[in-house]
Amino acid sequence: MLERQLTTDAKGHFLNTNQCFSADGKWLVYDTRNDDSKIGRTGSIELVNVVTGEVKRLYHTRNQTEHGPGVGAASFSPAVNRVIFIHGIRNADEKNPYGFTRRTGVAIDVNNPEMPIFMDARDIKEPFTPGALRGGTHAHSWSGDGQRLSFTYNDEVIAQLSKTNPDVQDLRTVGVMFPRKVAVADEANGENNCGEMFSVVVAKVTENPVAGSDDIDKAFDECWIGKRGYQKADGSWQVSAIAFQGNVKDENGGTKTEIFVVDLPADLSLANQGESLAGTVHHRPDVPMGVKQRRITFTKEGVIGPRHWLRSNLEGTQVVFLSKDPSGFINVFAVSPNGGPVKQISFHLFDIQSGLNFSPDGQYISYVAQNAIYITDVTTGESKQLTESSSDDDRPVSAVVWSPDGKVLAYNRYVKNEDNYLQIFLLEKE
Predict the structure, then answer these.
(1) Interacting residues of 202 by C-beta distance below 8 A, sequence separation 6+
(2) What is the pLDDT of residues 64-75, one digit of tens each?
């Protein structure tokens, strides 16, 4: 494969960890960060044509400062020509800056740039609105059919309560939104907003997990399972499901990260009796009726390595993650969404440095290791180094993303110069 630098202008070009390519494979979407931690300071979402290098600005924030609102982590829908990204709350300032509980999901139709579509409604004042959230969404990911979006979530109401009540904590969790408009009183200060989609929390977290149990105090870095779900052990088909990382307490009370699955019902708008999808001033939102949560790994080491999102192949037969192998190196492992044995996929005698992505046909997994781009054959475990190892100054960073046809790999690299801007590179079949 041939390596080619796609962007050259003097600014950052930060690719999300997945879903960066348009459905036709012609465009990549990115934000203009030069540092992963600087979403709050970043004001633009852009597109670049993978053939011509043409750049188009898709969206820019108003009144952008170092405190927000900020945008980042953009993803293309697989079904329509639409992009979603993190957007800080519009009234961000020094007193109330961009933060975990102060962000939302905004979409832009590519043919209608600069026109924000607020996807998840936000309502932080009682009485709370079912289908709206009271905090911040992040890391939005489209389902295979483009109808639902998953996200991680932190609750502003609970975060404020935790300042005066030590028994309550703002615990990160995972949610889902689906098409159904939610109306909220839109205050003049921009704190609340209506939404095009109905949002719910789908992972159950608790402040005090019982040691040795399947209770979790954090749910995060999830993925959709399969393009259309997965086949259960009894032969039936689960149409919609998410795998996520969950922090449990081991027998000694230490924290360990394992993998969980939530099977989702067709209708996510119904609450269990006596519970509230909207939450209360003293209680975080409850999960919808029919959501089934279960743990699928019981490993010695747990999930270990650089921050990464779980990934599933399109058939929904495997969920892959990083962990430490018996030799002590960070490698790729896989497990069925039904649980069962964990299988080691890669066998490097060095650590993997980035997140993972499946090729569209499910044959390969891509990632960064030894400051180079690697792929590993899921069936044989054979690994190939596709680029030369770089110095730390011009190393590849973050995940390596496949085009929809599997012929192109896109990734970020720092280009060594006086500014060290983050640029987009491509690997293309000769």
Answers:
(1) 174, 175, 176, 242, 262, 264, 268, 287, 288, 291
(2) 999 999 999 999
